[in-house]
């Protein structure tokens, strides 16, 4: 089984650590590893950065927006081609998302459309680093943020290049990084999120909020710890049919905490996720951080392999292979004209390619009217969502070649 979506980060060492933690419940909620995880993560950023942890990335975003005390109806500027985790916290704080179209090279915000949509009600801008790519028009967007006195949230939940981050200095004092440690992200502790900034006033507010949050229940943590060993067992035995049966069994009995809750799928922010980050997950993220550079190097190598391959892609996409070559992408994006056929044929060979995002605000089941999106307002994003396929990057070169071969055979 090769999968872009399912447990892309999990190694045998991760699964074994999580399995052992199942028998150490005294370490689950509180412990020294939380502070150690903060120190380990901050080593990858420039000096004088501060950090707060939360149970999820959307809980982190919700806390940011709550701490700002913005008036009802204030606008938060986001890009189309995103997910519910970004949008639902906006509504939870009685704020209004304003959707900006994307450009075709790094799938990030188009500054021309952005400038058209900034109003006097705009207070926050969320700049998404899609697939771990630095937005190509980042500097131009920075200028608009400064001009209109917005709070800038750089969403690096999809990942980032350590080299770029280590050389980065905040150009705007009123800004921060938003991270996610979800199961499909570049760093995974199954759940988790963080806010990183060099703004002391901001971090003081966030730290106060962090301290007030309750910890998740022991049973909730138990279900999270099951994910890594079970998912690895499913992947390793999927081709033998055992994994397929185990996957059905796990879903049937609801053994694992879902990545998106039923309430979120219905378009409502789920307050159950407003929790503190437990020590058990900090132990898991510390191990991921220890091998992060190795994983990133592999992602960059596989991304370079894909970039050097001449895919017969849709005419919609501009030539951007050189732009994203050698970057440690979370997923490698390719635009095609017959996506459903390609995905279906690849799946017959137990190759499950991704389709982030197949709707301007994912998941596909989400009612776009409920999240304030007007059809036709971001045409590039809408077109990309119909054609995009994601190839996995945290795999071996042999597996990458299999993916490419399957891709070509499916056309």
Automatic annotation (TrEMBL):
<dbReference type="Pfam" id="PF01041">
    <property type="entry name" value="DegT_DnrJ_EryC1"/>
</dbReference>
<dbReference type="GO" id="GO:0030170">
    <property type="term" value="F:pyridoxal phosphate binding"/>
</dbReference>
<dbReference type="InterPro" id="IPR015424">
    <property type="entry name" value="PyrdxlP-dep_Trfase"/>
</dbReference>
<dbReference type="InterPro" id="IPR000653">
    <property type="entry name" value="DegT/StrS_aminotransferase"/>
</dbReference>
<dbReference type="InterPro" id="IPR015421">
    <property type="entry name" value="PyrdxlP-dep_Trfase_major"/>
</dbReference>
<dbReference type="GO" id="GO:0008483">
    <property type="term" value="F:transaminase activity"/>
</dbReference>
<keyword id="KW-0663">Pyridoxal phosphate</keyword>
<dbReference type="GO" id="GO:0000271">
    <property type="term" value="P:polysaccharide biosynthetic process"/>
</dbReference>
<protein>
    <submittedName>
        <fullName>Uncharacterized protein</fullName>
    </submittedName>
</protein>
<comment type="similarity">
    <text>Belongs to the DegT/DnrJ/EryC1 family.</text>
</comment>
<dbReference type="InterPro" id="IPR015422">
    <property type="entry name" value="PyrdxlP-dep_Trfase_small"/>
</dbReference>
